[in-house]
Amino acid sequence: MAKVILWGSLSRLAEGRKEFDIDAPNIDRMLTALGEAAPKLKPILEKGVTVSVDGTLYRLDRFQKIEPDSEVFILPKMAGG
């Protein structure tokens, strides 16, 4: 299972929980499972977040593969400029 870590204030919406072990083949399924595990996070996840998988940032590639031993960070949506 991938280790999923909530960054910054996102853990507040998961009742203080910062880490989850989630079994999912890609970012899309991982975000769905995370929303089910922490329902208050679901609106933020649907609105958009930045996801780091093993050190690489993804904003739009929801079908990026996640390996079972991946380390995943969920960050508030990052604006570019």
Estimate what percentage of residues fall within beta strands.
25-35%
Overall geometry comes to globular
Mean pLDDT: 93
Radius of gyration: 11 Å
SS elements, strand count: 5
Largest sheet: 5 strands, mixed
Helix share, percent: 10-25%
Low-confidence stretches: none
Calculate the terminal CA-CA distance, rounded to whole Å: 35 Å
State the secondary-structure class.
alpha+beta
Number of helical segments with 4 or more residues:
2
Q: What is the strand arrangement across the widest sheet? A: 2-1-5-3-4
H/E element sequence: EEHHEEE
Q: How would you summarize what this structure contains?
A:
This protein is an alpha+beta fold.
Helix and strand layout, with pairings?
Elements: E1 2-6, E2 19-22, H1 27-37, H2 42-47, E3 49-53, E4 56-58, E5 71-76
Parallel strand pairs: 1-5
Antiparallel strand pairs: 1-2, 3-4, 3-5
Any overview of this molecule?
By secondary structure, the chain is of the alpha+beta class. The protein has helices spanning 27-37, 42-47, and strands at residues 2-6, 19-22, 49-53, 56-58, 71-76. A 5-stranded mixed sheet has the order 2-1-5-3-4. The N and C termini lie far apart (35 Å). The model has no long low-confidence stretch (mean pLDDT 93).
